[in-house]
Task: inverse folding
């Protein structure tokens, strides 16, 4: 018996459809960033534990080295006057290349644009910064990684125009563009096909982009010179270079509509982000810049009343809102979503005496590990759920007569309801060789429902076979306490692999999470076809499963 796993229907975000890319959409990736940001030394020691407990596609890390005088230098403190030497970072390259990553294959060096804001006219300072950026690019290239820019001004406002310099806004903007081009040129000389994931790009200046006179707004804005710097990056970018506007404002968005609208604002030719790009760079921007989103975990774990708090919608838990918004960001992004956390951790501090010394995100948001695993690797998550479920000696199959051994007087499997489309009722419900048979079905199903509660997780599985002109699937649907259909967008489709051969007995399985408004899980063992072909089901099983405990 060949195993076929749960297949998810691909959702194409509006941003991707409008970005003009003709090639196949890239696999989406979830990237971790937080106060638990690791060094390469930490990663080398703990990469297996990190991958096991934190189901991301990659991480942002601090590139840290030691100068000959013993002083620590780091990519998170890029803007210092001390020069770097490439050889100082050889151990960082060795650290990362010693890891045999299975999941973390999209890792980013975090480059902070602070603490010291250098004058845009300081040639020496910017030459030094460009050499440091080139070293970061070299490390990234040597380790199959990429770069992340954090433009946030944690101290002095680097990107705010300063009239005290005696320069006009236009003069400062021209200098910022020059420095952006110099930095990007240094990077692409080392690594032309680098991905530069910016925690934000022009998404921070949507207001200026909506103005009929953007420069008048930018002249007094905290990040008013950033669009000019970004234009410089675009000036020097290689054709292979990819930029990501990570839209940190995604922290505060709520619901699909807000994430979709932001994606359109970043990529539409008439959108506010594109209006801040120089006309000569707009074609390059739209071809080489992706929509991404930041996601702030603490919003969903902070106490009510906090400045950063996201509560549930009516009928939801806070975890429901967390999951719904993260999925909305995931669907709206082109490729990258980055998750940021502060008060909790994904992995232990270096010197923690025990697990009691720190709080994990799984403790703060029970179920988050499973949810992220299912989001980023649905096939792997289903295989893991199957292994956990079937190895549990206390499992209880909630489906009645799932082996179809009991046959009612009408010849149909006992305990199962039936339905077929009224306009073409060609089929017959019966049994064959100990399996439930849908004979000559145009569109019909066996039906059974079980009582559930919102937020619970269920593993669903059955064996199926179908003839040449028929297809079969499991569909999981939802009803409220009064038996009305609800949450149709959360229906789960569990189907045989597209390459499954007719008459081949295959096992199909998946995980279904009960949406907030649902109190009954309805299993539909469905078949459709030409009205002459048959399909069978056997060994139907549904188990309630607990979240993973690491």
Result:
């Amino acid at each position: 018996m060949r195993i076929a796993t749960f297949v998810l229907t691909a959702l194409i975000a509006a941003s991707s459809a409008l970005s003009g890319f003709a090639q196949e959409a890239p696999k989406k990736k979830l990237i971790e960033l937080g106060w638990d940001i690791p060094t390469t030394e930490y990663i080398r020691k703990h990469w297996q534990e990190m991958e096991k407990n934190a189901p991301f596609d990659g991480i942002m890390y601090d590139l840290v080295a030691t100068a000959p005088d013993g002083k620590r230098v780091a990519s998170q403190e890029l803007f210092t006057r001390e020069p770097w030497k490439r050889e100082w970072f050889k151990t960082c390259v060795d650290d990362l290349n010693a890891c045999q990553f299975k999941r973390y294959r999209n890792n980013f060096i975090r480059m902070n644009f602070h603490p010291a804001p250098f004058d845009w006219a300081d040639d020496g300072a910017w030459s030094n910064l460009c050499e440091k950026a080139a070293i970061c690019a070299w490390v990234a290239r040597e380790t199959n990684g990429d770069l992340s820019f954090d433009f946030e001004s944690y101290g002095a406002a680097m990107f705010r125009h300063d009239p005290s310099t005696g320069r006009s806004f236009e003069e400062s903007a021209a200098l910022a563009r020059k420095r952006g081009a110099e930095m990007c040129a240094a990077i692409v000389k080392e690594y032309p096909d680098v991905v530069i994931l910016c925690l934000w790009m022009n998404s921070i200046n949507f207001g200026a982009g909506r103005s009929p006179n953007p420069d008048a707004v930018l002249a007094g804005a905290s990040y008013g010179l950033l669009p000019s710097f970004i234009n410089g990056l675009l000036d020097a970018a290689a054709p292979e270079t990819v930029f990501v506007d990570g839209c940190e404002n995604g922290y505060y968005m709520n619901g699909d509509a807000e994430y979709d609208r932001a994606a359109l604002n970043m990529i539409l030719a008439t959108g506010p982000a594109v209006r801040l790009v120089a006309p000569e760079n707009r074609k390059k921007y739209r071809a080489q810049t992706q929509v991404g989103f930041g996601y702030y975990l603490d919003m969903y774990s902070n106490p009510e009343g906090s400045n950063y708090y996201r509560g549930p919608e009516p009928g939801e838990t806070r975890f429901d809102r967390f999951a719904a918004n993260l999925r909305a960001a995931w669907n709206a992004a082109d490729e990258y979503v980055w998750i940021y956390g502060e008060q909790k951790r994904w992995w232990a501090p270096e010197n923690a005496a025990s697990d009691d010394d720190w709080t994990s995100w799984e403790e703060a948001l029970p179920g988050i590990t499973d949810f992220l695993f299912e989001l980023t690797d649905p096939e792997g998550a289903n295989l893991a759920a199957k292994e956990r479920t079937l190895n549990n000696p206390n499992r209880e199959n909630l489906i009645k007569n799932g082996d179809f051994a009991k046959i009612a007087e009408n010849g149909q499997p006992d305990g199962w309801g039936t339905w077929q489309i009224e306009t073409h009722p060609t089929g017959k419900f019966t049994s064959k060789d100990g399996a439930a048979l849908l004979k000559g079905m145009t569109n019909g199903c066996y039906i059974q429902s079980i009582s559930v509660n919102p937020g619970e997780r269920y593993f669903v599985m059955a064996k199926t076979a179908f003839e040449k002109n028929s297809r079969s699937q499991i569909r999981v649907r939802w009803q409220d306490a009064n038996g009305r259909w609800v949450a149709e967008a959360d229906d789960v489709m569990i189907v045989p692999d597209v390459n499954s051969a007719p008459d081949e007995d295959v096992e199909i399985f998946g995980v279904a999470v009960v949406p907030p408004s649902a109190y009954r899980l309805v299993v539909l063992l469905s078949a459709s076809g030409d009205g002459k072909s048959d399909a069978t089901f056997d060994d139907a099983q549904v188990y309630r499963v607990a979240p993973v405990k690491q």
About this structure: The two ends are 32 Å apart (CA to CA).
